[in-house]
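Obj.: predict assembly geometry.
Materials: sequence records (below).
Method: joint structure prediction, all chains together.
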Amino acid sequence: MQPLWELAAVTKTFPGVKAMDAVDLAIYPGEVHGLVGENGSGKSTLVKCLSGVHQPTSGRMYLRGRPTVIHDPFVARYLGIATIFQELSLVPNMTVAENIFLGRLLRRKDLGIVVDWAGIWDRSRELLEKLGIHLDPGSLVSELSVSQQQTVEIAKALSLDASLLIMDEPTASLGLDEVARLQEIVRNLARQGCAVIYISHRLDEVMGLVDVVTVMKDGRIVANEKATDIDLNRVVSLMIGGDLRTHYPKERNMTPEVLLLAEGIRTDRGVRGASFTLHRGEVLGLAGLIGTGRTSIAKALFGIEQLTAGQIRRASSAPVARQLRLGSPGAAIASGVALLTEDRKATGLFMNFTGVHNVSIARLSRIARHGILRLRSEQSSAQEHFEALRITPTAGERSVQFLSGGNQQKVIIARWIFSQADVFILDEPTQGIDVGAKVEVYNLINRLTREGKGVILISSDLEELLAISDTICVVRDGRIVETRAADQTDRTYLAERVFVRQAV
Amino acid sequence: MARKVTSSSIVGPVVATAVVTLLVGLTTDRFFMVENLRNLALQVSIVSLVGIGSTLVIISGGIDLSPGSAIALLTMILASFLKFLHIPLGLAVLATVLIGAGLGLWNGVLTSYLRIPAFITTVASLSIFRGFAFMFNLGSPIFSISDSLTQVFYNTIGGIPYVLFYVLAFFAVAAFVMNYTELGRRMYAVGGNANAARYSGINVKRVVMLSFVLAGVMAGFGSILMAARLNSGSPNYGVGMELSAIAAAVIGGASLQGGKGNVVSTLFGALTITIVQNGLNLHAVETSVQGVVIGLIIMLAVFIDMWRVEMWSGVSRWAGRLFGRGRPQEGRG
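Observations (raw structure tokens):
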């Protein structure tokens, strides 16, 4: 059978990163194709190349054997590729039918410019029936559940006679029964001849649904097999890779002295009971999928999200729980907590500032007397940090927007060292930076622990997490379900705990 | 000391001022006459003070459309204090500035704590403040309010009117606050990236509110100059002043996206726009046409603000091709 789409040696590089490395892949009509891999393994880049968001750096793509270039998302739609991204693109205050035909409402044949509402409703009803979706085309999208909205999104994508449907993490926010319903629709589609690329971190779900599994790692395809020929454990071990590829410099600096204690903390958003202890010199790794509460725990510690129960204490000092609970990031910073957020552009960097100003901003009082800044001492103390962290000297005079990802990340770490924090929460500190810069970040973590500071490390890269942490907490559904010393666990065990959703 | 990023370049606004000065100076023979220059100084003083306030608000990521109306209301309040309540001049001036701060507080609280967009809040205030202004003295202007007030305005040292010294003093203070104080740095931070500011422990709401309060204070000082200039208070003063003030800030390089701008450049922005107005007056251009011209200048300034980066890269590409060199690459390491 001729493949619908064929990728031949498709490579995509970003500055400093090879996101896709000579990927060959064939996608057949009527086939549900599972695409799995850790974060940063290149799945999203592949999807974005197919949906016209990115252009491959080299390599070719063939549609039914013909070389094809997907210039932009419109071309992708025209070529029959429909993509459903994690974030839904529906207009909540419109009906299902209006959403399906959004932007290309049918016109009445007799009265050229008048919208043919009857036609839209009929066509919508037809489409929903064909997909086996039981929804009234007239209901408002805002009144539907998330899974129902997802099916509307599918209907919308398929209203253009798509031959390939790409679904990126469609079940991330769904319950188990909703997942089953969604999968039924996907199977139904495949029976009708549509090809489906299905991306999910929930491996047990993927394996139960798909015909073919492709495993990606470091921008390469490491396996492409029939789902019946490969088992879950094998997929997990392929995903996390057999051998250490990066050198992880790790110093053990953990001491028994307690630095911070979280006892049964809960928040309105995502934390449902987490207890852990951070010691001086310790790296405490939080393992878990995105959206399971890792970041929410970080935000609770940093005063962004308010505690509804439990407390956070700094050992051998008065409880600071109240301070943090009532508080604000300002109070958290004052008590020595620092948070390096996962999105450094949105919540970290001030692009209108030089590196120097980015460093001092979280603790201006250190360079101020009576509210008046001493610019010279700001300059010199920031320069010291640049040298210590090996940040490019241009950071001193240019906007941080011109720095590489690694330098930007180090500027923010410098900010928190400057703020004299002793509890460092690092949320995905090595995301989107190249290998060399990663090693520098690991060295920085060592430096922090050597100085008796505590680090809470959040990372989706299990290999990294295991190598750098002293202790690992597995986070699931807003709870810490397991705590282990890092040297008493291994990647396979951890990957199973993290990636496989167990029906409880 | 080099401050390349938080303060945008002052060169552009200075060049703009020079260009309009040349244009107006060469096309009329009256421009450089002492009387006209004095008049120009008086005109620019009020706009530039209000422009300081607008610049602070814009740097902090907001916008203020109410200072023109605030000035009308405050001149009526000051005039009533002096003429009807016979409050001593110093006290009346102080009270007016404080009430100005209060008007700014109103804008600030609505914007930052009740999260009404700054544009809506201050458009509403534009209507409200002027409405209140008309409630004084049955809506009629109040004339001859205080002779000593006018002296404060018109007296000269060596031929230079007092006002000019006030303006320079205010710009010096504002520049100091923005470049050398924690508050100024926080305003830049909040305007540059409010989320990152929050994650850096900055009380974003308070900073935004303070920027509006300071704008209210500047409207207060502007209203005193306004009242002094014509020795009167009027509910019709300050119409369109908010646009001139915003134009001064934007021509001065303040970015409407927030986080970028430079108070001193606003002075040149104010000069540019005032000289254009002055030139149009000297050429006896009709008021209606003047409105169109000022509007177009504001559009041009915002256009330059929006497309500054693209234009620069276009220019440097062109220059690179011309001199056979690539443009400087971004620093990475």
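Conclusions so far: Residues 147 and 231 of chain B are 7 Å apart (CA to CA).
To do: check interface contacts against the pulldown list.
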